[in-house]
Specification:
5 helices, RNA Polymerase Alpha Subunit, Chain A, domain 2, alpha+beta, 3 domains, single chain
Length: 301
């Protein structure tokens, strides 16, 4: 009996050894090329991660600084760029191409203010793992002003000349006034807003176009960016006097203003003069002159 039990124990031990050998063979000998590849990938990832996390410090100069303020204030500051010292992952910092910074001034009352720049109130879009260590300068002087609105007339600007026998009869902007929004100090100096220059060279008749407005101060904004401009162009006008005889033994001297071709060859007998109840002369023009010629004055001689 003892011999049988000892034999069974020996058999079980041998079986366990066989299983252990098979397991070791599968772990270390079978599919060794796949296991080697997995080991290589693991090592590469480990080196990549440790390389990215290598800390470094870098200085970025002339970073543009913008001031963010509420709707009823606007910022004026002599400082518009700052230097930043950043620290963090070396590779992430090396990949930074350009930076911009902004500081929130909402809540500050209008007036001259000194603002301290810190990593907590200066916003800079940075990759994860990179932070601001230092800012220079760390104090800036700013001026906050209330934003106002003002209606100003539109001034039509031109360049170039018409032909010698032509002139501009009228020029009209629609709308004729524009609402401008900006700091109080800017609006105090603003009495009108001009269009960009309109070239009159080569123009021979009436025309209408849409013309942009020329906003010269970047702190001011306009209600709309352009206006419709209409020009009336015609023959150059002259002033000419005529002495017209009447049936009352009197003569009337009338001064007319109109196109040269309509006035140069006219004769006094082409005009009709009558007198109203107060003996004031009334001059009747020929039909072709009614809409083009203006009676500037009359005098009884």
């Amino acid at each position: 009996m003892d011999k049988e039990m000892q034999g069974d124990k020996t058999a079980r031990t041998n079986h366990s050894l066989v299983l252990a050998k098979d397991l070791l063979r599968k772990v270390f000998l079978e599919d060794w090329h796949l296991k080697l590849l997995a080991l290589g990938i693991t090592l590469a990832l480990w080196f990549a991660v440790t390389g990215l996390s290598k800390p470094t410090t870098a200085r970025f100069s002339n970073v543009r600084l913008s001031m963010q303020s509420s709707d009823n204030t606007i910022t004026d500051s002599e400082v518009n760029t700052i230097d930043l010292v950043l620290s963090g992952d070396a590779r992430k910092i090396n990949q930074i191409d350009s930076l911009s910074a902004s500081v929130d001034l909402r809540g500050l009352a209008p007036g001259e203010r000194t603002v301290t720049l810190t990593p907590t109130n200066v916003f800079v879009p940075l990759p994860p793992g990179v932070k601001i260590d230092d800012i220079w300068p760390n104090r800036v002087q700013v001026k906050l002003e209330r934003v106002e609105e003002k209606d100003v007339p539109v001034k039509i600007e031109t360049m170039g000349d018409l032909a010698p026998n032509l002139e501009v009869y009228s020029r009209t902007a629609t709308p004729s006034r524009i609402t401008v929004r900006g700091p109080e100090s800017v609006l105090d100096q603003l009495n009108s807003i001009s269009t960009e220059k309109i070239d009159l060279k080569g123009r021979t008749g009436d025309f209408t176009l849409t013309q942009p407005l020329a906003v010269t101060d970047s702190k001011a904004t306009v209600q709309r960016g352009d206006v419709s401009v209409t020009f009336r162009i015609g023959e150059r006008r002259i002033e000419k006097q005529f002495t017209i005889p009447t049936g009352h033994g009197k003569s009337v001297r009338v001064t007319l203003y109109g196109p040269t071709s309509l006035l140069q060859k006219r004769k006094p007998d082409e005009f009709k003069v009558t007198f109203d109840s107060e003996d004031t002369p009334q001059v009747t023009l020929p039909a072709d002159m009614v809409n083009s010629v203006v009676i500037k004055s009359t005098k009884v001689l």
